[in-house]
Amino acid sequence: MNHVTAALVGGLFDEGGFAAWARPVLFGTAGDAVRGLLPDAVDACCFVHDARENALEGAQSIALDPANRFAALKNLPESAHVLVIAAPIALTEADALTHLADTHINTGYGVSVLSAEQQGFDEEGQPIPRDTHILAAMFTWDALMRALDAGADTLDALVRAAVAAGAQKGIAVTNEIIEICDGGSAYVAQLAMIQRVNFALIDKGVQLFDPANTYIAPDADIAPGATILPGCHIRPGCKVGAGAVIGPNTILEKAEIGAGTTVNNSQVYESKVGEKTTVGPFAYIRPQCVVGDGCRIGDFVELKKSTIGNGTKVSHLTYIGDATVGERVNFGCGTVVVNYDGYHKYQTVIGDDCFIGCNTNLVSPVTLGDRAFTAAGTTVTKDVPAGALSVARARQTNLEGWNDRRRAMHEKEKK
Predict the structure, then answer these.
(1) Active site residues
(2) Domain range summary for the chain, segments of one domain joined by +
Protein backbone atom coordinates (compact mmCIF):
# COMPACT_ATOMS: atom_id res chain seq x y z
CA MET A 1 0.00 0.00 0.00
CA ASN A 2 1.25 3.48 -0.86
CA HIS A 3 1.92 5.91 1.94
CA VAL A 4 0.76 9.00 0.02
CA THR A 5 -1.14 9.15 -3.29
CA ALA A 6 -1.70 12.44 -5.12
CA ALA A 7 -5.00 12.71 -6.99
CA LEU A 8 -5.32 15.47 -9.58
CA VAL A 9 -8.96 15.99 -10.55
CA GLY A 10 -9.70 17.04 -14.13
CA GLY A 11 -12.93 17.74 -15.97
CA LEU A 12 -12.42 21.53 -15.97
CA PHE A 13 -12.89 23.34 -19.29
CA ASP A 14 -13.28 26.94 -20.39
CA GLU A 15 -16.08 28.17 -22.67
CA GLY A 16 -14.05 27.17 -25.73
CA GLY A 17 -13.61 23.61 -24.45
CA PHE A 18 -9.92 24.00 -23.55
CA ALA A 19 -8.90 21.80 -20.60
CA ALA A 20 -7.50 23.65 -17.59
CA TRP A 21 -4.83 21.00 -16.88
CA ALA A 22 -3.54 21.35 -20.47
CA ARG A 23 -3.01 25.13 -20.27
CA PRO A 24 0.54 26.06 -21.37
CA VAL A 25 2.65 27.29 -18.45
CA LEU A 26 6.33 28.09 -18.97
CA PHE A 27 7.74 25.08 -20.87
CA GLY A 28 5.00 22.59 -20.04
CA THR A 29 1.37 22.40 -19.08
CA ALA A 30 -0.48 23.33 -15.91
CA GLY A 31 -0.49 19.62 -15.13
CA ASP A 32 3.27 19.43 -15.46
CA ALA A 33 3.60 22.45 -13.17
CA VAL A 34 1.53 20.75 -10.45
CA ARG A 35 3.44 17.48 -10.84
CA GLY A 36 6.62 19.44 -10.18
CA LEU A 37 5.21 20.81 -6.91
CA LEU A 38 4.23 17.46 -5.37
CA PRO A 39 5.97 16.59 -2.11
CA ASP A 40 8.70 13.95 -2.03
CA ALA A 41 6.41 11.93 0.25
CA VAL A 42 4.07 11.20 -2.68
CA ASP A 43 4.51 7.58 -3.83
CA ALA A 44 2.00 7.61 -6.69
CA CYS A 45 0.13 10.17 -8.76
CA CYS A 46 -3.27 9.68 -10.40
CA PHE A 47 -5.07 11.93 -12.87
CA VAL A 48 -8.86 11.69 -12.88
CA HIS A 49 -9.98 12.90 -16.30
CA ASP A 50 -12.41 12.33 -19.13
CA ALA A 51 -11.81 11.41 -22.77
CA ARG A 52 -11.45 15.06 -23.83
CA GLU A 53 -8.29 15.47 -21.73
CA ASN A 54 -4.91 14.00 -22.55
CA ALA A 55 -3.22 11.74 -20.05
CA LEU A 56 -0.66 13.40 -17.79
CA GLU A 57 2.90 12.11 -18.02
CA GLY A 58 3.92 10.30 -14.87
CA ALA A 59 0.35 9.91 -13.62
CA GLN A 60 -2.01 6.92 -13.70
CA SER A 61 -5.23 7.73 -15.56
CA ILE A 62 -8.59 7.15 -13.87
CA ALA A 63 -11.85 7.72 -15.73
CA LEU A 64 -13.84 10.70 -14.51
CA ASP A 65 -17.56 10.46 -13.67
CA PRO A 66 -19.18 13.42 -15.49
CA ALA A 67 -21.94 13.59 -12.87
CA ASN A 68 -19.45 14.07 -10.02
CA ARG A 69 -15.82 15.03 -10.68
CA PHE A 70 -14.73 13.54 -7.35
CA ALA A 71 -16.68 10.28 -7.30
CA ALA A 72 -13.92 8.41 -9.16
CA LEU A 73 -11.58 8.97 -6.20
CA LYS A 74 -13.19 5.75 -4.95
CA ASN A 75 -11.07 3.99 -7.59
CA LEU A 76 -7.73 5.24 -6.28
CA PRO A 77 -5.21 2.67 -5.13
CA GLU A 78 -5.46 2.39 -1.35
CA SER A 79 -3.05 4.65 0.52
CA ALA A 80 -2.52 5.84 4.06
CA HIS A 81 -3.08 9.43 2.90
CA VAL A 82 -4.45 11.08 -0.26
CA LEU A 83 -3.50 14.56 -1.47
CA VAL A 84 -6.42 15.84 -3.57
CA ILE A 85 -5.86 18.80 -5.90
CA ALA A 86 -9.14 20.07 -7.33
CA ALA A 87 -7.72 22.34 -10.05
CA PRO A 88 -4.31 23.13 -11.52
CA ILE A 89 -2.52 25.65 -9.32
CA ALA A 90 0.69 27.63 -9.15
CA LEU A 91 2.30 28.46 -5.83
CA THR A 92 4.65 31.30 -4.97
CA GLU A 93 6.20 29.02 -2.34
CA ALA A 94 7.55 25.87 -3.96
CA ASP A 95 7.34 23.90 -0.71
CA ALA A 96 3.72 24.76 0.10
CA LEU A 97 2.40 21.26 -0.65
CA THR A 98 5.28 19.76 1.32
CA HIS A 99 4.25 21.96 4.25
CA LEU A 100 0.67 20.72 3.85
CA ALA A 101 1.82 17.08 3.84
CA ASP A 102 4.04 17.59 6.88
CA THR A 103 1.26 19.37 8.76
CA HIS A 104 -1.19 16.59 7.98
CA ILE A 105 1.02 13.56 8.60
CA ASN A 106 2.91 14.79 11.66
CA THR A 107 -0.15 16.07 13.53
CA GLY A 108 -2.46 13.17 12.75
CA TYR A 109 -5.33 15.26 11.35
CA GLY A 110 -8.04 13.46 9.42
CA VAL A 111 -8.11 16.23 6.80
CA SER A 112 -5.83 19.22 6.19
CA VAL A 113 -6.33 22.08 3.74
CA LEU A 114 -3.95 24.51 2.06
CA SER A 115 -4.95 28.14 2.50
CA ALA A 116 -3.37 31.23 0.99
CA GLU A 117 -4.61 33.69 3.61
CA GLN A 118 -5.74 33.72 7.19
CA GLN A 119 -7.68 36.07 9.43
CA GLY A 120 -6.50 35.35 12.94
CA PHE A 121 -6.74 32.08 14.86
CA ASP A 122 -9.55 30.11 16.40
CA GLU A 123 -9.82 29.16 20.06
CA GLU A 124 -7.68 26.08 19.46
CA GLY A 125 -4.91 28.13 17.85
CA GLN A 126 -5.71 27.03 14.28
CA PRO A 127 -5.41 29.61 11.45
CA ILE A 128 -8.77 30.83 10.17
CA PRO A 129 -8.66 30.95 6.34
CA ARG A 130 -10.03 34.06 4.63
CA ASP A 131 -10.77 32.25 1.36
CA THR A 132 -13.08 29.29 1.91
CA HIS A 133 -12.61 27.93 -1.63
CA ILE A 134 -10.29 24.94 -1.22
CA LEU A 135 -8.02 23.85 -4.06
CA ALA A 136 -5.74 21.38 -2.25
CA ALA A 137 -6.47 19.15 0.71
CA MET A 138 -5.00 16.03 2.25
CA PHE A 139 -7.08 13.23 3.77
CA THR A 140 -6.48 10.01 5.59
CA TRP A 141 -7.83 7.15 3.50
CA ASP A 142 -10.73 6.48 5.87
CA ALA A 143 -11.69 10.16 6.08
CA LEU A 144 -11.74 10.48 2.27
CA MET A 145 -13.82 7.33 1.77
CA ARG A 146 -16.40 8.47 4.36
CA ALA A 147 -16.63 11.88 2.66
CA LEU A 148 -17.13 10.22 -0.74
CA ASP A 149 -19.85 7.99 0.71
CA ALA A 150 -21.69 11.17 1.68
CA GLY A 151 -21.91 12.11 -2.02
CA ALA A 152 -19.76 15.25 -1.85
CA ASP A 153 -19.12 16.67 -5.34
CA THR A 154 -16.65 19.50 -4.63
CA LEU A 155 -13.43 19.57 -2.63
CA ASP A 156 -15.01 22.03 -0.20
CA ALA A 157 -17.88 19.59 0.29
CA LEU A 158 -15.47 16.68 0.75
CA VAL A 159 -13.67 18.56 3.51
CA ARG A 160 -16.97 19.47 5.22
CA ALA A 161 -18.17 15.87 4.96
CA ALA A 162 -14.93 14.54 6.44
CA VAL A 163 -15.22 16.95 9.38
CA ALA A 164 -18.87 16.06 9.85
CA ALA A 165 -17.85 12.40 9.99
CA GLY A 166 -15.45 13.14 12.85
CA ALA A 167 -12.16 14.05 11.17
CA GLN A 168 -10.11 16.76 12.86
CA LYS A 169 -9.23 19.57 10.43
CA GLY A 170 -5.84 21.19 10.04
CA ILE A 171 -4.79 24.21 7.99
CA ALA A 172 -1.44 24.89 6.31
CA VAL A 173 -0.90 28.50 5.27
CA THR A 174 1.10 29.65 2.24
CA ASN A 175 1.66 33.01 0.53
CA GLU A 176 -0.40 32.73 -2.64
CA ILE A 177 -2.31 30.08 -4.58
CA ILE A 178 -3.12 30.83 -8.22
CA GLU A 179 -5.87 28.74 -9.78
CA ILE A 180 -5.20 28.10 -13.47
CA CYS A 181 -8.58 28.21 -15.16
CA ASP A 182 -8.00 30.19 -18.39
CA GLY A 183 -5.28 31.81 -20.46
CA GLY A 184 -5.03 34.89 -18.26
CA SER A 185 -4.60 32.95 -15.04
CA ALA A 186 -2.11 30.63 -16.77
CA TYR A 187 -0.04 33.71 -17.63
CA VAL A 188 -0.19 34.95 -14.04
CA ALA A 189 0.84 31.48 -12.88
CA GLN A 190 3.73 31.51 -15.32
CA LEU A 191 4.96 34.83 -13.94
CA ALA A 192 4.88 33.38 -10.43
CA MET A 193 6.76 30.28 -11.58
CA ILE A 194 9.40 32.36 -13.39
CA GLN A 195 9.99 34.39 -10.24
CA ARG A 196 10.20 31.29 -8.06
CA VAL A 197 12.59 29.42 -10.37
CA ASN A 198 14.83 32.38 -11.17
CA PHE A 199 15.23 33.71 -7.65
CA ALA A 200 15.96 30.20 -6.35
CA LEU A 201 18.83 30.08 -8.87
CA ILE A 202 20.05 33.52 -7.79
CA ASP A 203 20.06 32.37 -4.17
CA LYS A 204 22.04 29.32 -5.27
CA GLY A 205 24.78 31.50 -6.81
CA VAL A 206 23.72 31.74 -10.46
CA GLN A 207 23.92 35.26 -11.93
CA LEU A 208 20.78 36.35 -13.80
CA PHE A 209 21.03 39.83 -15.28
CA ASP A 210 17.29 40.20 -15.93
CA PRO A 211 15.09 37.62 -14.16
CA ALA A 212 11.90 39.03 -15.67
CA ASN A 213 13.14 38.31 -19.20
CA THR A 214 14.86 34.99 -18.60
CA TYR A 215 12.83 31.79 -18.96
CA ILE A 216 14.18 28.68 -17.24
CA ALA A 217 12.46 25.33 -16.79
CA PRO A 218 12.08 24.17 -13.18
CA ASP A 219 14.13 21.03 -13.84
CA ALA A 220 17.11 22.84 -15.36
CA ASP A 221 20.34 22.00 -13.53
CA ILE A 222 22.41 25.19 -13.49
CA ALA A 223 25.59 25.21 -11.43
CA PRO A 224 26.57 28.08 -9.11
CA GLY A 225 28.85 30.53 -10.88
CA ALA A 226 27.05 30.27 -14.22
CA THR A 227 25.73 33.46 -15.82
CA ILE A 228 22.43 33.66 -17.71
CA LEU A 229 21.98 36.80 -19.81
CA PRO A 230 18.61 38.32 -20.84
CA GLY A 231 16.31 36.75 -23.39
CA CYS A 232 17.37 33.15 -22.81
CA HIS A 233 15.01 30.17 -22.99
CA ILE A 234 16.44 27.23 -21.05
CA ARG A 235 13.89 24.52 -21.66
CA PRO A 236 13.40 21.20 -19.83
CA GLY A 237 16.22 18.70 -19.59
CA CYS A 238 19.15 21.16 -19.61
CA LYS A 239 22.35 21.15 -17.61
CA VAL A 240 24.74 24.13 -17.42
CA GLY A 241 28.17 23.94 -15.79
CA ALA A 242 29.89 26.35 -13.44
CA GLY A 243 31.32 29.47 -15.05
CA ALA A 244 29.34 29.03 -18.25
CA VAL A 245 27.84 32.15 -19.83
CA ILE A 246 24.55 31.60 -21.65
CA GLY A 247 23.08 34.31 -23.86
CA PRO A 248 21.87 36.78 -24.52
CA ASN A 249 18.96 35.44 -26.60
CA THR A 250 19.94 31.78 -26.51
CA ILE A 251 17.71 28.69 -26.64
CA LEU A 252 18.77 25.46 -24.95
CA GLU A 253 16.63 22.32 -25.05
CA LYS A 254 17.78 19.01 -23.53
CA ALA A 255 21.27 20.44 -23.86
CA GLU A 256 24.31 19.91 -21.65
CA ILE A 257 26.74 22.84 -21.55
CA GLY A 258 30.14 22.35 -19.94
CA ALA A 259 31.87 24.50 -17.35
CA GLY A 260 33.36 27.73 -18.65
CA THR A 261 31.59 27.51 -22.02
CA THR A 262 29.93 30.48 -23.71
CA VAL A 263 26.78 30.13 -25.83
CA ASN A 264 25.96 33.52 -27.36
CA ASN A 265 22.78 34.22 -29.39
CA SER A 266 22.60 30.57 -30.46
CA GLN A 267 20.42 27.46 -30.25
CA VAL A 268 21.43 24.04 -28.92
CA TYR A 269 19.04 21.08 -29.03
CA GLU A 270 19.51 17.61 -27.51
CA SER A 271 23.28 17.89 -27.69
CA LYS A 272 26.33 18.09 -25.44
CA VAL A 273 28.92 20.88 -25.55
CA GLY A 274 32.15 20.44 -23.62
CA GLU A 275 34.10 22.74 -21.34
CA LYS A 276 35.73 26.07 -22.25
CA THR A 277 34.12 26.07 -25.69
CA THR A 278 32.61 29.07 -27.44
CA VAL A 279 29.39 28.80 -29.43
CA GLY A 280 27.97 31.60 -31.55
CA PRO A 281 26.79 34.12 -32.21
CA PHE A 282 24.05 32.70 -34.43
CA ALA A 283 25.16 29.07 -34.29
CA TYR A 284 22.65 26.22 -34.60
CA ILE A 285 23.48 22.88 -32.98
CA ARG A 286 20.85 20.34 -33.90
CA PRO A 287 20.10 17.07 -32.05
CA GLN A 288 22.62 14.29 -31.49
CA CYS A 289 25.75 16.43 -31.58
CA VAL A 290 28.72 16.16 -29.23
CA VAL A 291 31.16 19.08 -29.19
CA GLY A 292 34.40 18.61 -27.29
CA ASP A 293 36.41 20.83 -24.95
CA GLY A 294 38.16 23.99 -26.09
CA CYS A 295 36.28 24.18 -29.38
CA ARG A 296 35.05 27.12 -31.38
CA ILE A 297 31.64 26.90 -33.07
CA GLY A 298 31.30 30.34 -34.61
CA ASP A 299 28.78 32.53 -36.35
CA PHE A 300 26.35 30.98 -38.83
CA VAL A 301 27.65 27.47 -38.21
CA GLU A 302 25.18 24.58 -38.25
CA LEU A 303 25.92 21.15 -36.81
CA LYS A 304 23.70 18.13 -37.27
CA LYS A 305 24.23 14.66 -35.77
CA SER A 306 27.99 15.17 -35.61
CA THR A 307 30.85 14.70 -33.18
CA ILE A 308 33.46 17.45 -32.96
CA GLY A 309 36.78 16.63 -31.28
CA ASN A 310 38.60 18.69 -28.65
CA GLY A 311 40.23 21.90 -29.83
CA THR A 312 38.52 21.94 -33.23
CA LYS A 313 37.57 25.32 -34.66
CA VAL A 314 34.60 25.85 -36.97
CA SER A 315 34.66 29.62 -37.05
CA HIS A 316 31.99 30.72 -39.50
CA LEU A 317 29.55 29.99 -42.32
CA THR A 318 29.89 26.22 -42.26
CA TYR A 319 27.55 23.22 -42.30
CA ILE A 320 28.64 19.89 -40.79
CA GLY A 321 26.15 17.02 -40.89
CA ASP A 322 26.51 13.28 -40.17
CA ALA A 323 30.24 13.67 -39.53
CA THR A 324 32.87 12.52 -37.07
CA VAL A 325 35.55 15.19 -36.73
CA GLY A 326 38.83 14.69 -34.92
CA GLU A 327 40.80 16.97 -32.63
CA ARG A 328 42.46 20.29 -33.51
CA VAL A 329 40.82 20.51 -36.94
CA ASN A 330 40.45 23.95 -38.53
CA PHE A 331 37.49 24.61 -40.84
CA GLY A 332 37.75 27.52 -43.25
CA CYS A 333 34.81 29.77 -44.00
CA GLY A 334 32.10 28.37 -46.26
CA THR A 335 32.86 24.67 -45.79
CA VAL A 336 29.95 22.31 -46.48
CA VAL A 337 29.69 18.63 -45.63
CA VAL A 338 27.50 17.40 -48.49
CA ASN A 339 25.81 14.58 -46.61
CA TYR A 340 22.51 14.16 -48.52
CA ASP A 341 21.82 13.09 -52.09
CA GLY A 342 18.06 13.60 -51.89
CA TYR A 343 17.41 10.03 -50.77
CA HIS A 344 20.03 8.96 -48.22
CA LYS A 345 22.37 10.51 -45.64
CA TYR A 346 26.05 9.55 -45.73
CA GLN A 347 28.90 9.77 -43.24
CA THR A 348 32.06 11.87 -43.34
CA VAL A 349 35.11 11.12 -41.17
CA ILE A 350 37.83 13.72 -40.61
CA GLY A 351 40.98 12.83 -38.70
CA ASP A 352 43.03 14.85 -36.22
CA ASP A 353 44.96 18.03 -37.11
CA CYS A 354 43.32 18.47 -40.51
CA PHE A 355 43.04 21.84 -42.25
CA ILE A 356 39.90 22.35 -44.31
CA GLY A 357 40.34 25.26 -46.70
CA CYS A 358 37.67 27.90 -47.32
CA ASN A 359 34.74 26.88 -49.54
CA THR A 360 35.58 23.19 -49.41
CA ASN A 361 32.80 20.74 -50.26
CA LEU A 362 33.18 17.32 -48.63
CA VAL A 363 30.91 15.01 -50.63
CA SER A 364 29.93 12.11 -48.37
CA PRO A 365 30.78 9.34 -47.91
CA VAL A 366 34.39 10.43 -47.65
CA THR A 367 37.28 10.08 -45.18
CA LEU A 368 40.17 12.46 -44.54
CA GLY A 369 43.15 10.99 -42.75
CA ASP A 370 45.04 12.73 -39.95
CA ARG A 371 46.79 15.97 -40.97
CA ALA A 372 45.04 16.11 -44.37
CA PHE A 373 44.83 19.54 -46.02
CA THR A 374 42.22 20.64 -48.54
CA ALA A 375 42.95 23.63 -50.75
CA ALA A 376 40.44 26.48 -50.79
CA GLY A 377 37.60 25.86 -53.23
CA THR A 378 38.17 22.11 -53.36
CA THR A 379 35.34 19.62 -53.83
CA VAL A 380 36.44 16.37 -52.22
CA THR A 381 34.80 13.23 -53.63
CA LYS A 382 37.48 10.66 -52.81
CA ASP A 383 39.26 9.76 -49.58
CA VAL A 384 42.29 11.88 -48.71
CA PRO A 385 45.30 10.04 -47.20
CA ALA A 386 46.91 11.18 -43.96
CA GLY A 387 49.23 14.16 -44.43
CA ALA A 388 48.14 14.76 -48.06
CA LEU A 389 47.00 17.92 -49.85
CA SER A 390 43.77 17.63 -51.81
CA VAL A 391 43.20 20.05 -54.69
CA ALA A 392 40.10 19.63 -56.84
CA ARG A 393 39.41 22.76 -58.90
CA ALA A 394 39.98 24.03 -62.45
CA ARG A 395 43.40 25.55 -63.14
CA GLN A 396 43.24 29.34 -63.34
CA THR A 397 43.44 30.94 -66.79
CA ASN A 398 43.96 34.71 -67.33
CA LEU A 399 42.82 36.24 -70.62
CA GLU A 400 44.69 39.52 -71.00
CA GLY A 401 42.53 42.53 -71.89
CA TRP A 402 39.30 40.50 -72.02
CA ASN A 403 37.30 42.71 -69.67
CA ASP A 404 38.61 45.96 -71.10
CA ARG A 405 37.38 44.88 -74.56
CA ARG A 406 34.02 43.84 -73.10
CA ARG A 407 33.54 47.17 -71.32
CA ALA A 408 34.44 49.11 -74.46
CA MET A 409 31.90 47.17 -76.53
CA HIS A 410 29.09 47.95 -74.06
CA GLU A 411 30.06 51.61 -73.93
CA LYS A 412 29.59 51.82 -77.74
CA GLU A 413 26.12 50.29 -77.39
CA LYS A 414 25.07 53.12 -75.05
CA LYS A 415 25.86 55.79 -77.67
Answers:
(1) 316
(2) 2-179, 206-390
